[in-house]
Design a protein that fits this description.
This protein is mainly α. 77% of the residues lie in helices and 0% in strands. It has 33 helices and no strands. The relative contact order is 0.03.
């Protein structure tokens, strides 16, 4: 009984605890939901206030006036008897007079202080803006209205009789309320005019209104030009898509951009002055203002832009507004370099990038015209980045190279890819700086990443011809690699590999190899009617056609320098070969591109046959398991039903056996190659006699291994043939030996061993 009572007591306590826990959880959940609702309401009110704050305030004021009108008669019924007694109306008149006089004095004093404080602060701005902001219409209007309302209150002292009392009191209350409200608004307006960011905002808004006026004026004038143009139909082909009427109107008014040019000058002045003071927030807003003004200019000018013609000079292609803006930015860069103001330089980089984006959006009348204005901006950006290289500002150069890469990708997306050649050269030049300056090694990595990203974007672009651009980018990668290979490599953390990792690394998810893998998977799933996939496959086919030349030169140079980049190059070559074969097998790939891709894949994988055959080189390469790598490529080709290509790669493995088998490398080179060839024979379904005849022919050449190596390899092959395999190994050949028919493999290995050493 005692045990039952204790058990019941424990269960009761447990239930109470569980109930308390559930209650706490419910309270916490309720509290969280309540706060979330409060936050939602706060955000909603804040958003409505920012969007409709002025309209809501105006409606509230109108509502107050309407309510006052309806409330006045009712108030008159209650207070008229009170003021009907002798002397009380006179006291009310005196009150109105005193209050009105006090408010007049307060208005004068308040606005004097506000204007004085504002002018003291405003005079720090450019002289041309001093008059504009010191005579602000809203501020002066507030003073006039406030003064007028105070006079109205003082004028109510002439109240003729008691029937006017309610209206006079309501008017006084409303006027007093409005005076206080106008004081607050005037104070806030003064603070706005003092703030440099708000000054810039007002300046940009005024410029936007000015461009809108010119835009409307040009549209309204168009019918007049159309009426006067008797030969409109005959000139239609000559004009193309150009807006000649708008162009004519702007030529008749050559000063239509003068206010905008003045505004840009003011923005630049703000940017330089505040950057010198260290206030880069204001300088950023000022430079953004310059970009915004150029955006308004492009929109207002419309289809009146002309592209540069390489055969004939077109005077209409020159744009003084853009040239003036770019000159300001050039001077900004020089000022930033002289001050070592890194943040200011980076802000100018970003502004030039935004300008490139804006001028790439221009719609030229001639559809085949290049975006020459955007290319001009990009040229200034290239020069700006190049000018910062000698001044040991690594962070600035990193930012500059990143912006150049983004600019090149913009041009690829919106214009012909041939125009990115000079940008890729500048990126490559910046990437080489890490060789001579250790502080710039991070710059090299960023440059290679930008070139890798640009390569990937070119492969995915809709451009009809990427041949020139892709070669330029590839040459820059080659240049950076050659520059680094000319310097000694570090033993532990390979400088060569780390610097070129964004392009050649196979272990990073943020590298060209990883991006190409995802693209290959997407292409493999595409249908045969997918036009985008067909275009991308064509670009990849164009890219892969000459790929072997660059990789052969780099591979031979890295082997000569005994660089760890050799590992990355070998695996990159083999992996790209697999990707090219995979793309050639996709449904979206037509017969022409299939043949071209497979041919490019074979040319690329056969780059490995160019490696020197000396003992030192073979020992160096054997550390990277070349035989396993080649074998894996042959098996992959077989799995994709590329029978011809699989046999070609098998020949490459046999070629490697001839080169490496005669040396004692310490990696069982000849044994591993023979095992790989045996497995390939079984996987590809080839006759044993074919392999044995090839071995016999090999043993009769000058490259044949010595008797000692042959006998040792034969003994090891006999042991390997009788070995039990558990399904794992140290490489692709070991795994394949576990997967094939063990009895057939055992017999073939014994035969190979007997032929090596009877």
């Amino acid at each position: 009984m005692i045990n039952k009572a204790l058990a019941t007591k424990k269960r009761t306590k447990l239930k109470i605890r569980n109930t308390i826990k559930r209650a706490k959880k419910s309270l916490v959940l309720l509290q969280a939901k309540t706060f979330q609702r409060l936050y939602y309401i706060q955000n909603l009110v804040s958003r409505l206030k920012s969007i409709y704050g002025g309209k809501i305030a105006f409606l509230a004021l109108i509502s107050l006036l309407v309510i006052s009108v309806f409330f006045t008669p009712l108030l008159q019924l209650y207070i008229e008897p009170y003021f009907s007694k002798t002397g009380r109306l006179d006291l009310l008149r005196e009150f109105f007079l005193s209050l009105g006089g006090a408010l007049i004095g307060a208005t004068a004093i308040a606005f004097s202080l506000i204007m004085f404080a504002m002018q003291v602060n405003v005079e720090r701005m450019p002289h041309g803006l001093f008059r504009k902001f010191s005579s602000d219409a809203k501020l002066l209007g507030s003073f006039i209205v406030t003064f007028s309302l105070a006079i109205v209150i003082a004028g109510l002292s002439f109240l003729p009789e008691t029937s006017w009392v309610a209206g006079a009191i309501v008017t006084t209350v409303l006027c007093s309320f409005l005076i206080i409200l106008l004081f607050v608004l005037a104070y806030r307006r003064a603070l706005t005019l003092i703030s440099p960011t708000m000054q810039l905002s007002l300046l940009v808004n005024d410029t936007k209104k000015s461009f809108r006026k010119w835009d409307r004026a040009a549209k309204r004038t168009t019918p007049i030009f159309q009426e006067k143009d008797k030969n409109q139909s005959e000139l239609g082909d000559v004009r193309g898509e150009f807006d000649m009427y708008r162009l004519t109107y702007f030529q008749l008014h050559p000063n239509w951009t003068s206010s905008a040019e003045q505004a840009i000058y003011y923005c630049i002045t703000f940017a330089r002055r505040y950057a010198e003071q260290g206030d880069h927030e204001v300088s950023r807003v000022a430079l953004n203002g310059v970009v915004a003004i150029n955006s308004f200019y492009v929109k207002a000018k419309g289809r009146t832009f002309f592209s540069n013609n390489y055969f004939f000079e077109n005077l209409l292609a020159s744009d003084s507004f853009l040239l003036g803006t770019l000159e300001h930015f050039r001077q900004n860069i020089q000022i930033g370099i002289s001050r070592k103001d890194e943040q200011f330089i980076e802000q100018n980089y970003q502004s030039l990038f935004q300008l490139t984006r804006i001028y790439l959006s221009i719609e030229y009348g001639d559809l085949v015209s290049s975006k020459s204005h955007a290319h001009l901006v990009a040229g200034y950006l290239e020069k700006a980045v190049e000018d910062t290289i000698p001044h040991n500002m690594a962070d600035v150069l990193i930012q500059g190279v990143s912006v150049l890469g983004s600019t090149a990708r913009l041009i690829v997306a919106h214009d012909r890819s041939v125009h990115i050649g000079s940008i890729s050269e500048k990126i490559g030049f910046a990437g080489c700086t890490g060789v001579v300056n250790k502080n710039y090694q991070a710059v090299s990595q960023i440059a290679v990443k930008q070139l890798a990203t640009l390569t990937f974007d070119l492969l995915r672009s809709r451009s009809a011809d990427i041949d020139f651009a892709i070669k330029q980018v590839r040459n820059q990668i080659k240049l950076i690699a050659e520059m680094y290979l000319s310097t000694p490599d570090t033993p532990l953390m390979s400088t060569h590999s780390s610097s070129l990792a964004p392009y050649y690394s196979g272990t990073s998810e943020n590298s060209l190899m990883a991006w190409l893998t995802e693209l290959t998977n997407a292409l493999s799933e595409a249908d045969s009617n997918n036009k985008d996939a067909n275009l991308v496959i064509g670009n990849i086919s164009e890219w892969g056609s000459d790929l072997y030349q660059t990789e052969k030169e780099l591979l031979l140079l890295s082997i000569e320098k005994k660089s760890h980049l050799t590992f990355d190059l070998v695996h990159w070559i083999v992996y790209i070969t697999k990707l090219l074969l995979a793309i050639s097998c996709s449904k979206a790939c037509d017969h022409h591109h299939t043949d071209k891709l497979r041919k490019s894949a074979m040319w690329l994988i056969w780059v490995l046959s160019w490696v020197p055959g000396d003992e030192e080189t073979i020992k160096f390469l054997e550390t990277f398991r070349i035989a396993d790598t080649i074998f894996e490529s042959a098996v992959d080709a077989h799995k994709r039903d590329c029978a011809t290509e699989a046999l070609e790669v098998r020949k490459l493995l046999l070629n490697w056996t001839h080169k490496s088998g005669k040396y004692q490398t310490g990696w069982a080179t000849l044994e591993k190659a023979c095992c790989g060839l045996a497995c390939l024979n079984i996987i590809l379904g080839l006759a044993d006699d074919l392999l044995l005849d090839e071995i016999d022919a090999y043993l009769t050449t000058q490259e044949a291994p010595s008797v000692d190596i042959r006998s040792r390899t034969a003994r090891d092959l006999h042991q390997e043939a009788e070995e039990y395999r558990e399904g794992y190994g140290h490489g692709a050949i070991d795994l394949a030996m576990s997967a094939v028919d063990q009895e057939i493999l055992r017999i073939l290995l014994h035969k190979i061993a007997d032929h090596l050493s009877p």
